[in-house]
Amino acid sequence: MLSKWEVVSFVDEVFLSSQLCLATKEYKVSLSKQQLQDFGVCFIGPVLAHYFRWLGEQVSQYGVDNLLFLAREGYFLKQGYERLRYQGLVPDIQTHYLLASRTFLYRAMLDRPECWELALQGAFSGNLKQLCEKRLGLMNSEVDSIFSPAQKAMEVVLPDDKEKVIRVFKEHVSRLAACAQPTKDAYLRYSAPMLSSPGSALVDLGYSGTIQKLITLLHGTDTRGFYWIATRAGEVEVGQCRARMHGALKEGVALGQGYIPLDRSLFLEAVLTSPNGQLKNISVNSSGKIQMTYGGLTHVQRHFHELEVIMAGAMSYAEDMLRSDVVVTGQDVENIYAAMIKSFSNLSAELKKLFDIDDDNAGLGVINPLTVFA
Q1: How high is the pLDDT of residue 363?
Q2: Residue 205, domain extent
Q3: pTM of this prediction?
Q4: I need a labelling partner for 252 at 20 to 30 A (CA). Which of 7, 146, 175, 349 fits?
Q5: Which residue(s) pair with 96 in the sheet?
Q6: CA angle 373, 304, 39 (to 5 degrees)
Q7: Beta bridge partner(s), residue 23
Q8: Are 243 and 349 spatial neighbours (Cβ–Cβ below 8 Å)?
Q9: So what's the pLDDT on residue 48?
């Protein structure tokens, strides 16, 4: 396994001119296991080595006894933490993988004005029907039963039209509540046992803590969240409760300010994912069992075995760094991440496909950061 310093050299001298980055239109050869692992070591390994060391320190500092890794980035983050815990490299505490998504949690609290404030603050352009289906998780039939034809066709540009949308929601709050209640009841049944310990904390990549705020609101309890990057670190009031947020790599930085790990975070989000699509709904069937409904799969989820090889390389690197007590600093992560991003336009076609990511929250569907940032 490459050392911390060898990774820097590998990125600068080898990776950027390797077979991974020399793809042409004629390049059709599948990537080898070693190539995929090398990619994981260079791109994700330093991120995990820095993040897990910091996370272990936070767990000890705040007396956390239960970590809830949020879907979908938390799928591999939980695996990584448990691997390090087994080796005695991070605190030995309870861990869970908590299914959650903004779309799903918006749906579960459709009748809550506090939820509307969070749901309508991000950019969106389309009509009200599209907003309700793509961002709020409503089905076509539900939208038709709640809103008038004129309301469904109403053009919406967020955040500018937030108040206009809220006025429409207020007209139908009882119908929205009836739609939300089964989802809310099922999710509370699923998630409440995981949040029962007062020493619980949420773990995610970041960034503004919207999912944490929604969980705080839904459960009516104070929460703490640990993030790779926290754009709004500190303590905020959510209803009658408080949400505390901490960032490992950076705190208080905003999107678009030139901080590469945040501005180009879509690359990391794309590969730190789970085998399932985005959580859309949770219900209880006739036999009393909880059922999950997921959104569609992207290329990486249909070829998840490749991602598992990439992450195996990344996790091995993180384990080696912690076992050897070699500190990967935030500056190291920033430098390596920036160097990797610069090389991505030359990635092989095989690797480029692994960066597809769904962004229904903005109404964009499946996007690829290589296209977005071209």
Answers
A1: 54
A2: 4-102+188-372
A3: 0.90
A4: 7
A5: 68
A6: 55
A7: none
A8: no
A9: 98
